[in-house]
Amino acid sequence: MSTLLGPDEVGQLAPSGYYIALRIGFAFPMEEINAYPEEWVNHYTNQRFMLFDPVVRWAYSNVGSCRWSEIPLEDPKRIVAQAQTFGMRYGVTISVFDGGKDAQRSFASFTRGDREYTDLEIKLLKVYLTRRHGETAPPTNLTKAELEALGMVKDGKRLKEIAFELSVSEGAVKQRLKNAKLKLGAKTGTQAATLANQYGLI
Questions:
Q1: pLDDT digits over 12-23, tens only?
Q2: H-helix or E-strand containing 108?
Q3: Which of 20, 22, 99, 181 could serve as 31's disulfide partner, Cβ 3.0–4.6 Å?
Q4: pLDDT tens digit string along 154-201?
């Protein structure tokens, strides 16, 4: 098996479902992939398990990996046991966190019904999550002028207004937005402003 997993290989390693939350901000992840069984998602949501889930609590307070069978936290609502009845008998949770002032966390849980995850599989899944965490990191090469223009786009200002407020030509504003779109991988100025806002850059 390649050391660089793709979504297909992840699906093969987690045949009974997985969940990935990338770059969790104050409350919500920047990107979320929920491939758990639909019946479990509905049950989990209806029972409001999120606040009591030992797997989630572990992911928020640790870095590294832990098999569900080894999570050292209480589970008064028996969430892990209930997950087993939905085919998710064995699971592993992985959490990564980058240091620094604006540090963000990503975590993922992978499940299968037949056996525990091997150390090698856990290592491969950790490499996958770490790579995805890195890929969704905010760009660090946006200039102050580009961020200023994006902030004004976010506030709903038009090109003419932005140019007037910044005392530059409309062409200069267009160039700043063009550069920002390129750096953020956005198609439009509005999309670039939304992304920059999600990253906490503006």
A1: 999 999 999 998
A2: strand 105-112
A3: 22
A4: 999 999 999 999 999 999 999 999 999 998 888 999 999 988 887 778
**123 burial via Cβ count (<10 Å: 0-12, 13-18, 19+):** middle
CB 68 within 8 A of CB 80: yes
Say if residues 125 and 94 touch (Cβ distance below 8 Å).
yes
Both structure tokens of 138? 């905010």
Closest among 140, 151, 138 to 177, alpha carbons compared: 151
Cβ contacts of 40-43, under 8 Å, gap ≥ 24: 40/83, 40/86, 40/88, 43/82, 43/86
Do 149 and 177 meet the contact criterion of CB atoms below 8 Å apart?
Answer: yes
Cα separation values, 42 from 9, 36, 47, 100, 184, Å: 26, 10, 8, 36, 34
> Treating both helix axes as pointing N-terminal to C-terminal, what angle do 170-184 and 159-166 enclose, rounded to 10 degrees?
110
Is residue 149 within 8 A of residue 168, CB to CB? The reply is no
| 167 Cβ contact list (under 8 Å, min separation 6) | none
Kindly state the tokens that stand for 41. 């998602």
137 vs 88, which has greater pLDDT?
88
Q: Which tokens in the block code for residue 21?
A: 């939350």
